[in-house]
Design goal:
Number of domains: 2
Number of helices: 10
CATH architecture of the largest domain: 3-Layer(aba) Sandwich
CATH superfamily of the largest domain: NAD(P)-binding Rossmann-like Domain
Mean pLDDT: 94
CATH topology of the largest domain: Rossmann fold
Largest sheet: 6 strands, parallel
Strand content: 15-25%
Radius of gyration: 21 Å
Shape: elongated
CATH class of the largest domain: Alpha Beta
Structural class: alpha/beta
Length: 256
């Protein structure tokens, strides 16, 4: 039996469809009192906060564990918080899932850009900050659509990789207001943008794909530049594919 905490993420529906092919499921949505003890507890992809609450729910994992006494935890990423229960923890957001999920994130990002600008992707100047797994995938897709992509990074290895793959690179963000970018996409979870510089680019679309604290103070930046938070894009644009991907991964883990 697999116990699933339903945090109303749109991917959960398809995850349930996939897992129900081989396992009996119990769903925690309104109450944990009727859930049978034992089984395997699935924690949604958003994980838990620093107080142990499963994100986007009112449940603390401590209370659920106390009530149902699971024999295994399926968690997005293993942390010391999970380990304190003394229960076997299995991580399902492995590298292969992250790579595929980055493709789904890119698809969602392209949808957001297309629906919030007046230009074609093939006629767009894009500044992409950060050139890790997500940045590389995004740059390749934008290039495929004909966008003119410039990469910023403070990592020499990333800049060299970007140059080898045919992208323009910059080492400073101090003059981006003079470069006429149509879209800025950030993948770096550090405040790297100056609010004063962004104020001088009011026509630019700023898409934030990094986690908190983001590339800029979003609460202030949104007052003078078109700003979109791209958190959870796979759940918004490709929930079926993303949910079933995680479901298949979990089935593979349990069947092994």
């Amino acid at each position: 039996m697999i116990v699933i905490v339903d945090n109303k993420d749109s991917r959960i529906k398809y995850l349930i469809e996939e897992l129900s092919k081989e396992y009996q499921l119990e769903i925690i949505d309104d109450s944990i009192k009727s859930i049978r003890s034992g089984g395997i507890l699935f924690i949604p992809i958003q994980g838990i906060d620093d107080k142990g609450f499963i994100k986007k729910t009112e449940y603390r994992i401590d209370d659920i564990v106390d009530n149902i006494n699971p024999r295994m935890l399926l968690v997005p990423k293993i942390s010391n918080y999970y380990k304190k229960f003394g229960i076997e923890c299995v991580e399902y957001l492995s590298l292969d899932i992250e790579i595929i999920n980055s493709i789904y994130t890119v698809e969602g990002a392209l949808c957001l850009i297309s629906s919030n600008t007046t230009k074609s992707l093939s006629d767009m100047e894009v500044l992409l900050t950060g050139y890790g797994k997500l940045g590389q995938t995004l740059a390749d897709y934008l290039k495929l659509f004909g966008s003119n992509v410039t990469i910023y990074s403070n990592c020499e290895k990333e800049l060299l990789t970007a140059k080898i793959r045919g992208f323009k690179t910059i080492r400073s963000l101090g003059y981006i207001d003079t470069m006429n970018y149509d879209t800025i996409i950030n993948t770096v979870p550090v405040n790297i943008f100056s609010l004063e510089v962004l104020k001088r680019t009011p026509q630019t679309l700023y898409l934030e794909l990094a986690s908190y604290p983001y590339g800029v103070d979003i609460s202030k930046a949104k007052n003078f530049i078109k700003t979109y938070l791209g958190a959870g894009l796979p759940g918004k644009f490709t929930p079926e594919s993303a949910g079933k991907l995680i479901g298949r991964k979990i089935l593979g883990i349990l069947n092994d």
